[in-house]
Write a structure and sequence with these properties.
Length: 314
């Protein structure tokens, strides 16, 4: 599906703004005048405006080709003229598509291009989004400005960004694990799940917030990837391993690096009384260490080798 975006004629914009008595905007998309036209193809949906940006999936495969990225075709009355293209919000621009011999990776591209229209006024360049934040591609030819708004659609879960977990729970108590999963470009996703293995802790169990055993999945209710550990009655140590399903391809690893797809932690289980006993023992040990230092200091004070007063022991 193809849509036309009509360029702004800067001179016309200046004239109109002068009549209105206001300063001109730097770029006015979809103006009714202009001499350059921008045709965008391969988009999934949208019209390219701020209210309805082109939607296009981020190229998570690790390579890009013209069939899977946006193609920008320019027709202009400005022949053999310099053309400037810039982009925002992580939109990558390419002056040629990737193919079997020219393998651009999804990490290729830049935020600006300097090109020249042909002797017929035509020009073709390419681009792809890397972020789910709406960005703008701005084309300037001989004073005419055209803008297209583009928003990326997040890819599949590629890596575990983080996991928030408790360090301890009481026997038969519960602890919540919250994971953040991202696509290959680091966009947070609502897809993907973690398979969880629980070792130790007697009858300890794990389930997601929908009570599916041994899973961390995304909940539309809490709007997060989460799971809950229910500790067994026996005090001790519980080991938790969570693994993101699937594997990264060689092309993805080349473009984005090897993803973190495994998480491991240990959790201690002890009753409140046991925790108080352990803390009391720690305090007693700290007092003993302090008293040893205090005794040494006081000995120096008594021998007048230290210029300060003695300190009290605990």
């Amino acid at each position: 599906m193809s849509k036309k975006l009509i360029a702004v004629a800067t001179a016309a914009a200046l004239a109109l703004s002068a009549l209105a008595g206001i300063a001109p905007a730097t770029a006015l998309p979809l103006a009714s005048s202009g001499t350059s036209f921008l045709d965008v193809t391969n988009e999934t949906s949208g019209t390219g405006t701020a209210a309805d940006p082109y939607l296009e999936a981020v190229p998570e495969a690790g390579t890009v080709a013209s069939a899977s990225i946006l193609t920008f075709t320019v027709s202009s009355t400005s022949k053999r003229k310099a053309a400037s293209v810039t982009s925002t919000s992580g939109i990558k621009l390419l002056d040629a598509p990737g193919d079997s011999t020219n393998k651009y990776t999804s990490a290729s591209g830049s935020a600006s291009l300097s090109l020249t229209t042909t002797d017929t006024g035509s020009l073709v360049f390419y681009g792809f989004p890397t972020s789910t934040t709406t960005g703008i591609v701005t084309l300037t030819i001989d004073g005419d400005v055209t803008q297209a708004y583009i928003k990326g659609v997040a890819g599949a879960a590629y890596a575990i960004k983080s996991v928030t977990a408790p360090t301890s729970v009481t026997p038969e108590g519960k602890g919540t694990f919250v994971a953040v999963l991202v696509d290959a470009f680091g966009n947070t996703v609502t897809t993907g799940e973690l398979a969880v293995t629980v070792v130790g802790g007697g009858s300890s169990t794990f389930a997601d917030e929908a009570a599916v055993a041994n899973k961390i999945t995304y909940s539309t209710t809490s709007e997060r990837h989460a799971g809950v550990l229910t500790a067994g009655a026996t005090a001790g140590t519980i080991a938790i391993q969570a693994t993101l399903a699937g594997t990264a391809t060689d092309a993805q690893k080349t473009a984005f690096g090897t993803p973190v797809r495994n998480y491991f932690t240990t959790i201690t289980t002890a009753s409140l009384a046991d925790q108080i006993t352990a803390l009391t023992a720690q305090v007693t040990a700290l007092k003993a260490d302090y008293n040893k230092l205090a005794a040494r200091w006081n000995k120096l004070v008594a021998s007048k080798k230290a210029p300060k007063k003695a300190v009290a022991t605990k």
